[in-house]
Amino acid sequence: MGFVAASADQALEAKQAAYGDAQFFDQLSGDHQLEVIEICAARAEKPSEPEV
Questions:
Q1: Which end of the chain is less enclosed by CB atoms within 10 A, N or C?
Q2: Number of structural domains found in the chain
Q3: 16 in any annotated domain
Q4: Coil, strand or helix: which one is 34?
């Protein structure tokens, strides 16, 4: 799951703050797995913007 950040370093910092050292979904706690599922579902429901 991507993080919105101005640089790769900031994205990595945000990822580590949110999910620790987990590299794979199954390494997340149950609460964090549910959070990822909910975020992905919300993004899937959002209508995509047409490409220009």
A1: C
A2: 1
A3: yes
A4: helix
